[in-house]
Automatic annotation (TrEMBL):
InterPro entries: ABC_transp_permease (IPR001851). The gene is mglC_2. GO terms for cellular component: plasma membrane. Keywords: Cell membrane, Membrane, Transmembrane, Transmembrane helix. Signal peptide: none annotated. Belongs to the binding-protein-dependent transport system permease family. AraH/RbsC subfamily. It is a multi-pass membrane protein. It is found in: Cell inner membrane. This is Galactoside ABC transporter, permease protein.
Amino acid sequence: MIYALSGVFYAFGGMLEAGRIGSATNNLGFMYELDAIAACVVGGVSFSGGVGTVIGVVTGVIIFTVINYGLTYIGVNPYWQYIIKGAIIIFAVALDSLKYARKK
């Protein structure tokens, strides 16, 4: 049931994205995984287990979207944007690891 429901949501998201861009291809969402992971990690979801909140994830998505559009607006090369996103993920995971190391 969950897989069917997630498939419906993926199809709906694909239609919205195709409508936004004005076309559709088979690799339309390629490399969105990095954005999704980065937004969740910035929002407070832990890689080492634990619980994230919806408000935290939405906050992470908003922060990461502002960073994404800001980098595009100032004309940063897309390859450097991936490097910056990766650095943000590494920094957020390092902070999360320090948080859990202090708890133990």
